[in-house]
Design goal:
By secondary structure, the chain is an alpha/beta fold. It has three domains: about 25-205, no CATH class; about 230-560, Up-down Bundle (ABC transporter transmembrane region fold); about 585-810, 3-Layer(aba) Sandwich (Rossmann fold), CATH 3.40.50. Helix content is about 65%, strand content about 5%. The strands form three sheets. It has a six-stranded mixed β-sheet, with helices on both faces. Strands 4-3-6-7 form a four-stranded antiparallel β-sheet, covered by helices on one side. Helix 8 packs parallel to helix 12 (about 360-400), helix 8 packs antiparallel against helix 17 (about 520-560) and helix 13 (about 405-425) packs parallel to helix 17 (about 520-560). The longest helix has about 55 residues, at about 460-515. It is elongated. Pfam families: ABC_membrane, ABC_tran, MTABC_N. InterPro entries: AAA+_ATPase, ABC1_TM_dom, ABC1_TM_sf, ABC_transporter-like_ATP-bd, ABC_transporter-like_CS, ABCB6_N, P-loop_NTPase, Type_1_exporter. One of its GO terms (molecular function) is heme binding.
Amino acid sequence: MVVMKTYCGAEASIAQTWVEGGLSPCFYFTLVPSVLLTLSFFFGTFHCVCYRRYGTDMEPKFVPRSRLYGAQLALSVLLLLQALGGMVYQVAQGAEEIPGYVVLYGCLSMLGWAWAIALLRLERRRVLVRDRTRGHSTVLLMFWAVAFASENLAFISWTSPYWWWGLDGEKHQAEFAFWLIRYTGSGALFFLGLKAPGLPKRPYMLLINEDERDVEQGQSLLGNQAEGQSTWADFWKKVRLLVPYMWPRGSVLLQVLVLLCLGLLAVERVINVFVPIYYKNIVNDLTNQSSWKALATTVCVYVFLKFLQGGGAGASGFVSNMRSFLWIKVQQYTNRQVQVTLFAHLHSLSLRWHLGRRTGDVLRSIDRGTSSINSLLSYIVFSIFPTIADIVIAIMYFISYFNAWFGLIVFVCMFLYLTLTIIITEWRTKYRRDMNTQDNNAKSKAVDSLLNFETVKYYNAESYEVNRFEDAILKYQVSEWKTNASLAFLNQTQNLIIGSGLLAGSLLCAYFVSEGKFQVGDYVLFGTYIIQLYTPLNWFGTYYRMIQNSFIDMESMFKLFTEEQEVTDDVNAGNLLFKLGKVEFENVFFSYVEGKEILKDVSFTVLPGKTVALVGKSGSGKSTIMRLLFRFYDVNGGCIRIDGQDLSKVKQTSLRSHIGVVPQDTVLFNDNIRDNIRYGRISASDREVEEAAIAADIHEKIQSFPEGYDTPVGERGLKLSGGEKQRVAIARTILKDPQIILLDEATSALDTQTERNIQASLAKVCANRTTVVVAHRLSTIIGADQILVLSDGQIAERGRHEELLAKGGLYADMWLKQQQAQDSDSASDTEAKDRKSEKLQPPSATGGHPHGH
């Protein structure tokens, strides 16, 4: 039966502070929990009362989501449980007597850490509104600081036999393990507390005031949070996006390759353990002058293992090369799937998004994002996880083969190395993110300038564009310098930690060899193993940075993935059942921006096979009607029907298969003329393409080109004239053979003769088809079955050409102005021809004489 006979144990007194070269355990374990409980209970209670009485609950949107806050809670709970575990361990050892200070320490420590946990949770839920500070309260920071400092006091008792530093016996080893938990846990809590990850980074009153201003001005809350957040934010959300691409579904062969690669990865871990062991055996066999047969066998096994492992840093072995070879197909599958999925997603986005995009920015985001996925998967699966596994295996091996001191050295070095790497890398994240922003900006300026090459030449703006591009590069290089400088600082910090750990372990191992406790081979084993471990660890910082950089590079791509489709098919949407081609607009309302309506209660009907023309001033809503009919946007109110079917209830692909469009500004692909015409129907044969070109009255023109139908049209079709591009667009539409035709000012930018020729081609296309025409020149729609005059988003007049002229309204006024402008242009052309004719006549024709005669 376990009893508590005395407070300090046999032959000890609490009055003795210093015993045999160290603090008295009874004094130490009485003082520490008493101070901690006083801090947490007295000051914590006062702190809690203030928060309860004068504080207010924080709005959830102002409380940052942080996994580091979860780590704070987990560490606090762990420290509470270790206090309980210490008492349980004493009982489990079957000791007849438990000193009273052990029970006191366990109980007071549990109470202190429980109160600290309560304060930590309270500060996350409530806040003192008038408090201008940010971060944790002084009470919590002081509690963690005292807890960490008290554990450092144990080093004073380094030589005392009453403490665990000698690791003599199972009891001291267990006490050392409990101290290690307390030391790392309290230290981590203190340093995390300085950062206060679970609390807002700015005073709460300031956040509330900014929130109110943002709401009044219609801006987003808290501004751009992405600038200050960690790259590991939404980590699992990003991983969930990647997981479908990591496991090749539908391909058994690729799945087998993935499993083989993981198996080879495990084999590498085993090889890494046995290489130093066989190297040690060689040294010991040479030292002990073992037989040649045994020595040769050991050497052969060692060389074979090195062949499998590789020749050192940067030199891959047989297993690693085989794994890399097998992973190629899996990596290609992932890369292909991501790019194809993203490309399809971009095509599914609305016209509104595409009109507002910056092409250079999007292309850079796609390029960097897709390339970073390969790096991310490779580093995580084949670098980070194996390195962590090697560290764990090394700690276990050193503790079991040597002693706990070697395991502690490795653990402390690894802990400091990984912690400082993560902290410094997180700190320098903002520089990398800013560098990407400046890089996107520079490339966007370059792409925009080159796409608008003609405009630059028109205004002699070459030097201006070059200077803008140079300014963007200079800004990029400033961010690049900050990124590289912070990288150099991180590398120096890592080298210092690695060198310190190697020095401590080597000195300790050399000491044991000199004392005769270890063999020479054991020193070689330690040196070989630790250097072998530090080599991937030295790269761990690089791996972590590359993973973080990959996440940064992927952020823009993930934003593209999260762009929602504005126009989507209804869940029960079916195909459009085309019958006659009757188009109906019923009380349609639409606006691009809330509060500014473009269409207001528009209603009209286009009968099957008839032509309706839309005319009006710029901005009256003509092109918007065309876009709504093609369903680039959904209406805000009312309904659009084709043959009685609501367009919002049918599939977009089905709807658009029945509609052909000849746009105002025809943009061609940078391909040959044949393939540009064939785009109307991809499956069309060459003969069908030529028949469509004949119908569009462009066949003979194409034949006059040196390369005929193989003639490249250039970027956006710039090698063709405006009339030629329009005819190619008409040929496309003829090849598509749609039942409904939309003509969006298809001839507005052409000369009169070209316009007449194209009008003839359009008349052939539109024959017996339902047609909607947006016209600028009223002379082109005289024969329309119905003309709708739009003004301020409403139909002001409707009727045939003659009827509208007879009304003398808006249409008649527009017709009169265009006729006057046309007559003026004709008179100017006639006068110019007369002047030219006079200049061409000889002097004798006018009866005059040359000057000077």
